[in-house]
Design a protein that fits this description.
- The protein is of the alpha+beta class.
- It folds into three domains: 146 residues, Jelly Rolls; 153 residues, Jelly Rolls (Sandwich), CATH 2.60.120; 239 residues, Collagenase (Catalytic Domain) (3-Layer(aba) Sandwich).
- The chain contains eleven helices and 32 strands.
- The chain has an eight-stranded mixed sheet, covered by helices on one side. The chain has a five-stranded antiparallel sheet with strand order 1-7-4-9-2, with no helix packed on it. The protein has a five-stranded antiparallel sheet with strand order 6-5-8-3-10, with no helix packed on it.
């Protein structure tokens, strides 16, 4: 036995190191990731046959015992079979030179257990059809594996059905991981055949589906947001951003005027929560209120465009009833639901406060490699410090509310800075709101003076992020101390200007008392017109007004009111992002692409390339008053 094993090892090493095999590996690498086999504990000893075939030469199923054996020397596949369900298998085909094969099926979840069904077939190199070797079912995964001796060289086909259909979310760690090992190192080729069943399921990915409950049998739903909308003669609309998985649900919770007909239009868009890229429309459809009350409307991320982890869903709900119908005054309560992920719920509970990139739709590829053009021609580009004043009476805005508004202004500035492709590194680094200084300590650093080059700001990581957060300026922060310690003769004009504005020691200069932007909050309509449809007004270069009479401005992603008592509800952050865009020199952009600078909030979605290209390059806000409307002007 020992002589035979030693002989096998010598043959395996010779084959592995042969020039033909090495050359083939350089030319034709496998199309999937093959991680190295983990080292085995010294106590593990190889003993017994690799495969103990039972009756009728069937596949042998094992539990956790004897999982590792050093004689399974080559891993030829390691993939997540995320599309496998209880009715549709995931299929893989591998070219092998015969010998022994071991297939390990596992889940990473510590809480979800469900079995899988597996069928193994082989087709010889000179044969046309596959011959089934075995068709069996595992126990609850866990980790289970089976082994088989292949009768000849050829194509091994593995078909796996997940009898738990991916658990509560259909994502890792609940889906099945599959690994394939052989007892001899050999040249292999792997293919992923098209799964006709999965493609049929995906063909309707763009349709909203009405269901009675969760799409996945194991899933539980949690209420993420409740929208309360008042029906009005001129229609209504509501926008919401929700963190969820691949599926999101909407349902009418109560309908006081259930006997009256009404139509509601729904639009669902989705993208990865870690991406600043564009949204993909998942579905759009019009439903009766009765349909929305009797079941759930389901929107799903397309499987072929699957994104693991948390998605940002943009949900748009609007009145589709003909405007000739009299206003019935009904109030609808609409619930947005997501599937509970028992092992990652913390990601969703904290998501709303770190979702500023929900409002950014710039192309993802190469975003971190953009070349800064450093044009710096606009007033904002020339200002070393942005100044903002919030003007409101105490009966309109309490100190706590003022603090919330301040935070949303800072979030808006961070989004615009992250989107600016023409800005110098020092732009947007410092701002002052109501006399308090804020900065982005992680956004840029100071390059040391060297030779003829003076000390200057430079972009850290050579990229910008819409998720950067402003923090109060701490005078004892090492970065700020370093900034103030630089001598005039060794520093750039940009650093000298910042030193003066933020008050660095003896070089501090008198700060102009007039702010660059005044945000006016008062319980009346704006100077853009006595019109209920006007949410906000950019009255001139400095003045921005919010209509607190007709609107309630909601907290970022939370649904609770920050300021205003009007009957119509809008997202405060969304409105401020739009109005700060005007302050930065951008007019209205009604290009049909969903720019956040659209003239009405119905089509205003996110910072698009058309808006990003303007930041930092214009001299001032375009002339005339600019009204941000609730709906397109009639």
């Amino acid at each position: 036995m020992e002589v035979g094993l030693r002989h096998l090892i010598v043959i395996a090493l010779a084959t592995l190191l042969s020039p033909a095999v090495l050359a083939q590996r350089q030319i034709s690498p496998p199309p999937f990731h093959i991680p190295s086999t983990p080292p085995l504990p010294p106590a593990v000893q190889a003993s017994g046959p690799l495969v103990r075939l039972g009756e009728e030469d069937r596949c042998v199923f094992h539990g956790d015992a004897d999982r590792f054996d050093p004689r399974w020397s080559s891993m030829v596949m390691y993939e997540n079979l995320r599309l496998a369900t209880s009715s549709s298998p995931e299929v893989r085909e591998i070219q092998l030179a015969g010998g022994n094969v071991k297939i390990v099926l596992s889940r990473s979840s510590k809480t979800f257990k469900a079995p899988a069904a597996i069928r193994i077939s082989i087709r010889g190199n000179q044969e046309k059809n596959f011959k089934e070797l075995c068709n069996t079912q595992t126990g609850d995964l866990g980790i289970q594996w089976l082994a088989r001796t292949l009768p000849s060289a050829g194509t091994l086909r593995i078909e796996v059905m997940d009898l738990g259909s991916g658990g509560p979310t259909g994502d890792p760690p609940y889906t099945i991981d599959a690994q394939v090992f052989t007892s001899d190192r050999q040249s292999i080729r792997s293919e992923r055949p098209l799964n006709p069943n999965a493609r049929t399921q995906n063909s309707a990915a763009a349709a909203c589906e009405v269901v009675k409950g969760p799409k996945r049998l194991q899933a539980k739903l949690e209420l993420a947001h409740t929208l309360r909308v008042s029906r009005r003669a001129k229609g209504w609309q509501y926008l919401e951003y929700v963190g969820a998985g691949r599926n999101i649900y909407l349902k009418v919770l109560d309908n006081p005027n259930a006997g009256q007909a009404g139509l509601v239009n729904l639009k669902f868009f989705g993208k990865s929560s870690s991406s600043s890229g564009p949204y993909q429309k998942r579905c759009e459809e019009t439903f009766t209120i009765a349909q929305l009350a009797s079941g759930f409307v389901l929107a799903s991320e397309a499987t072929e465009n699957r994104i693991f982890g948390t998605l940002i869903w943009r949900v748009e709900v609007s009145d589709a009833t003909p405007l000739t119908r009299p206003d019935d005054g009904a109030t609808l309560a609409i619930g947005i639901y997501r599937e509970v992920d028992p092992e990652r719920r913390g990601d969703l509970s904290t998501l709303p406060e770190r979702m500023p990139n929900a409002y950014v739709c710039l192309p993802s590829p190469g975003r971190g490699q953009r070349q800064r053009q450093n044009t710096g021609s606009g007033l904002v580009a020339q200002a070393p410090l942005l100044r903002i004043k919030i003007s409101a009476k105490p009966d309109v805005l309490s100190e706590a509310q003022r603090g919330q508004v301040t935070q949303y202004i800072l979030k808006a500035l961070a989004v615009w800075r992250g989107s600016c492709i023409h800005c110098n590194p020092e732009q947007f680094l410092f701002t002052e709101i109501d006399g308090t200084y804020f900065w982005l300590p992680q956004a840029a650093a100071i390059r040391e003076a060297e030779g003829a080059f003076k000390a200057d700001f430079y972009e850290m990581r050579n990229q910008r992020s819409s998720g950067e957060q402003y923090v109060p300026l701490a005078r004892n922060h090492p970065g700020f101390v370093r900034l103030c310690s630089l001598l005039p003769e060794t520093t750039s004009q940009g650093i000298l200007a910042v030193q003066k504005e933020v008050g660095c020691g003896s070089r501090s200069q008198s700060i102009s008392p007039k702010p660059k932007l005044i945000l006016l909050l008062q319980s009346k309509r704006t100077t853009c017109g006595d019109d209920v449809n006007i949410i906000a007004c950019a009255a001139d270069y400095q003045l921005v007004e919010l209509n607190l009479l007709d609107y309630s401005f909601l907290a970022f992603g939370a649904g609770s009111s920050v300021v205003g008592n009007g009957g119509r509800q809008v997202d405060l952050f969304h409105v401020l992002l739009h109005e700060v865009g005007h302050w930065l020199g951008i007019g209205h952009i009604d290009n049909g692409g969903g720019s956040v600078m659209a003239s009405n909030i119905t089509t205003s979605r996110c910072v698009d390339p058309a808006a990003a290209d303007i930041v930092g390059t214009t001299a001032a806000t375009p002339g005339g008053r600019l009204a941000f409307r609730f709906a397109p002007a009639q």
